[in-house]
Amino acid sequence: MRALVSATVLVASSTAHAAPEPVEYEDTSYPVSLMLATGMSASLTVGALALDGDIPYDAGAAMLVAGEVGIAFSGAIVHLAHGESKRAWASVGIRGAGALLGAGIGPAFTADTLEGTLDGIGYGLIVGLGTAVVLETVLLTGQRSPRSEKPSPPPPRAWAPVISATNQGGQLGIAGAF
């Protein structure tokens, strides 16, 4: 009987707790990530233009398209990687608006020929996207907004096995706090 009572006391006094969730470090600013992603995409574009004629047409076109798509969406990808979906949409809007404004204004600064107009559109795109990237880096990569912070974790759950002896028999069960 003593052994049963001792076992009951030992089992009832031991309580298992769930391990607390580890605290995650959150980046508060990430302009370097944004500039590196955009820079890598821009290097593909510059490489395709610099190697024009020295590499097969298909490879140059693939590099150019990959670079341009990367420039357009690299900011959104970086924002999504940092858990900021609203900033990702804002990035697409800022870069799209910069490209359109640049392409629209660029021809005004070039010659009146068709070739000059096309050059103006290209230069305007470059200046517009560059301005948009700088604007995005300054405006969208600062401190996180309060909505992206995680709420405090709930209190830990606890449970314990319960064994008890009575005059008429015994009981076995689990008690817990959730």
Structural description of this entry:
The protein has 178 residues and is mainly alpha-helical. It has 2 domains: 2-22 and 157-177, no CATH class; 31-148, no CATH class. Helices cover 59% and strands 11% of the residues. It is built from 5 helices and 3 strands. Strands 1-2-3 form a 3-stranded antiparallel beta sheet. α2 runs antiparallel to α3, α3 packs across α4 and α4 (85-105) packs antiparallel against α5. The protein starts with a helix and ends with a strand. The mean pLDDT is 76.
Widest sheet, order of strands: 1-2-3
- Strand percentage lies at 5-15%
Helix content: 55-70%
Terminal-residue CA separation: 33 Å
Number of helices: 5
Number of domains: 2
Instruction: Indicate the overall shape.
Output: elongated
* Element-level helix/strand string: HEHHHHEE
Work out the radius of gyration: 31 Å
User: Would you report the number of β strands?
Assistant: 3
Structural class: mainly alpha
Major beta sheet summary:
3 strands, antiparallel
Average residue pLDDT: 76
* Contiguous runs where pLDDT drops below 50 for at least 5 residues: none
Topology:
Layout: H1 2-13, E1 16-17, H2 31-50, H3 57-81, H4 85-105, H5 114-140, E2 158-166, E3 169-177
Antiparallel strand pairs: 1-2, 2-3
Helix pairs in contact: 2-3, 3-4, 4-5
Entry summary:
The chain has five helices and three strands.
Q: Characteristics of this structure?
A:
178 residues, mainly alpha, 2 domains, elongated
